[in-house]
Amino acid sequence: MEQVEEESVCGNGSINTENTAYDDEFSKDPTIELLGGLDLNDLRKDGPGTEFEVSYNETGTPEVKQYFDGEELSKNLNYETQLDDEGSSSGDEDLSPFDRLARKMEDITPDKSGGVYKERLKQGTGMTIPLRSFVKVHYNGYLEYSDEPYDSSRLRNEVQQHQLGGGLEGWDLAISTMKKGELSRFLISPEYAYGNIGCGPRIPGDSRILFEIEVLSFREKAGVDEYYSASREEKRQMPMNVVLKVYLAEKQRGTEFFNRNKFLDALKWYQKAKDVLDNIRLKDEKEEKTQQKELLKICLNLAICSLKLSHSGRAITYCKEALDIDERNTKALYCYGKALHQLSEFGRAKHYLQRAQKLAPGNQDINKELERLESSVKQFRMTEKDICRRMFAKPSKTEDVNKKSTKESANSKTKTKEHEEKCGDEFQGLVKVRLQAFKDDSHVMEIPFPCGTLSRPEMVCIFETALDMGLDTRIKGEGTPDISIKIMKKQPTSP
Fold it and tell me: For the whole model, what pTM was predicted?
């Protein structure tokens, strides 16, 4: 573990457990494999040091690992780290590649000592990233005279997550000058990077580092810790602008999970954001309007997450809250109708979807949901029709009406007994077809199976078929005429 942590800070001072290729003037093949490990205690002691054995391949040359894909590596080369006399201007022929770059860059160190230089390659948007924020970036790190990055989140295909204030001084200073979507280049001196010690074999001492950094997103941290460490009454006394900052931070966290299809995690963070809004002590009408506006947004986010997780009842609860704020909100009406569709409440689902359609006639999502609803209604009616047809079907053999009533009674009892002992093949086939159609319909999460006049073996058939297909069952109603079986899909979990 200590080796991993030591290795992890060689890129940018933040967590990174990946080994990466590198190249510098002190090591020709830095990724050569050894047959055994090294004892770091032996290296620290005064004396002759330690011995190790290199792993060789069949040709007798050292075994070297290729950590990055060659094609991807070629896309991330930076030739400005190399000497190029042809492209140099008058007066800088004797300068090193990094010194030439520094001439085109802005010194952003507070004392203008040249510790960190910046060149903006692409403008960002919004506010500058505050200190202590959580940021997500892609970056390449280069050493002088090496066009290949010694470390790269892009080549690892792994977004770097980092909290400002916990990494290299130059790295934090660099990112604190950026905005979301910005791409910039930073030249960082040893004093703001790894000093005269360096970082293991990858970065020699007194090395300047060239970083190309792109900010993907960030989330403010300042104010959030203070909010959660305060008492309930202290939270209610906090100014609106402070509470909104906490709310937006939690909401943004939820959106990050949502965009990664982690809907259960997104639901949790959206609920935290809603709780923050619910606990605000409003001072005037203006603050109330702001709160209601944000509550509407977060309730809709919660409803959508709940639909993604097929938590239909919870989605309906959030939709009701949204409609209490704005009864003509199209998205709330749409989500309400979709949740009712999942519950097979087709009539009510149609009512809310048609209300949404009236407000937004050209909305394709609403129109497609109405089409899917109509398809589900037809499927359900076919199931009811088939069951009713089976219930009222004529006997396969005509009874002799002239037989004595006692014989008819005995025959009837015998047939009833035989009927209870076995479920017909036709009924079994019908149940399988209808349950498979239900399972394939991704827009309906449960359906009722009317069974007030079904025999016990037929009800058992429905239960067993549903269980074999991975469906849940529940009996609704009391007494034979009102009883029905509810067939439900298992609740999905967030990936």
Answer: 0.52
